[in-house]
Amino acid sequence: MPGAKLLRPVLFAELTIPREEMTKITGIETIRTRANGTWLFVRVLTDQPGLYGIGSASDMYRCKVIQTAIETIAPLIIGRDASQIEDIWQSIYTSGYWRNDSTLNTVQAGIDMALWDIKGKEAGMPVYQLLGGKTRSAVAAYAHAQGDSLSELEDDVRRYWEEGYTVIRCQLGNYGGGGFLDRANARGPKNHWPQEKAFDDDAYLEVIPAMFAHLRDKLGWGPKFTHDVHEHLAPHNAVQLAKLLEPYRLYFLEDLLSPEQVQWYRLVRQQCATPQAMGELFVNPHEYLPLITERLIDFVRIRVSKGGGITPARKVATLCEWFGVQTAWQEGGDNDPVNQMAAMHVDLASTAFGIQEENHFRPEEYELFPGHAILEGGYLYGNDQPGLGIDIDVEKAKALLDPDLAAKSYFMAEDRRRDGSIVRP
């Protein structure tokens, strides 16, 4: 235009901060807490005053192993540019040659979350903004209803429904409930090993469909139901259960098969339309890639901290989007508020989001985490603070730890069949 003032193009080099001014990682700290010592958190320290990030590296059963692994990995990344999240993730991934195991993934996740926390704080934005911004106003969560009888379960479902939940998981007692026989009625061998009960597939196949028939009869079709098989069934019986539950229109059937038997999902898909959720135990991309790309499951349930952190979780969510699969990141009672918040940031920014598993913590546990998520009426609400938006009070974390409980070893509960053979959860 005549008379218009021409602006000089700004060179990219003029916008780039010199390398020596980039934020450097100066140290890695671990914080072990919860009364039983099964929560582990990472703090990545930097050369910028007061700037650090936190991440979740909790493991109910191998917390001390994870802590040692983080200390082993720390020298690899101290001195590195804290902004290079992807490069650091890849570096840790190949650092020990062997990879894709639950220990290394948890180490990576703790550091990865902390680096995203730092990046958000430096940018003055919550992590979900760095991932593309909100695609929803809050994160829907599903409740865990439980009862030792149908009437108890019905009452618990009603309680959650009245609180505002639309998706409710239904369990008769603990995992496998409905399939256990008393030792006296189990018809086991005369030299049976000491066990009070035995899991029986056929009993489970009879009780669980009857459970949903009762709930639909009493509560109608308003609530959306899920159920966690927790991999208790033999594969052929798992296929049968999925077919038997089809009339009750579940929101999803969770962990129908163990990771070792996921090929059976092809038979499930061929024979019924019951939606499938799988992935709580997944630590290797080769476990979930075929299930997503062949559309053999409907929800992927990897725990963000066991999948390697926010960096791989956002990639899984993008993959799910292209194949019509949704995310339902795993939480569970042994999880922690930091992992929950990391999952929420991915949930908020992903159009592949389906549902988030709920988690409840004790008041004294919430006190450790300024900025923790708020669970209300079936939805999780975060905040708009930069980074993950959550912090940890180190002194309160130390005070909560019970040295006697933390010194114990913890193991996954074992269920067994009538002949004593173990049920692989």
Kindly describe this structure:
With 425 residues, this protein is of the alpha/beta class. The protein has 16 helices and 17 strands. It has helices at residues 12-15, 63-77, 85-93, 102-123, 127-130, 150-163, 201-219, 235-244, 265-271, 285-293, 304-307, 310-323, 337-349, 363-366, 394-400, 403-406; strands spanning 25-33, 39-46, 52-56, 139-147, 167-172, 180-182, 197-199, 224-228, 252-254, 276-278, 299-300, 326-327, 356-357, 374-376, 379-381, 415-416, 422-423. The strands form 4 sheets. Strands 4, 5, 8, 9, 10, 11, 12, 13, 14 and 15 form a 10-stranded mixed beta sheet that branches. A 3-stranded antiparallel beta sheet has the order 1-2-3, with helices on both faces. Strands 6-7 form a two-stranded antiparallel sheet. A hairpin with a 5-residue loop joins β2 (39-46) and β3 (52-56). α8 runs parallel beside α9. The radius of gyration is 24 Å and the shape is globular. Mean pLDDT is 94; it is low at 1-19.
User: Quick one: overall form?
Assistant: globular
Strand content: 15-25%
Largest sheet: 10 strands, mixed
Q: Rg, please?
A: 24 Å
Distance between the termini: 72 Å
Query: How many separate helices?
Result: 16
The overall pLDDT, averaged over residues, is 94
Which percent bin holds the helix content? 25-40%
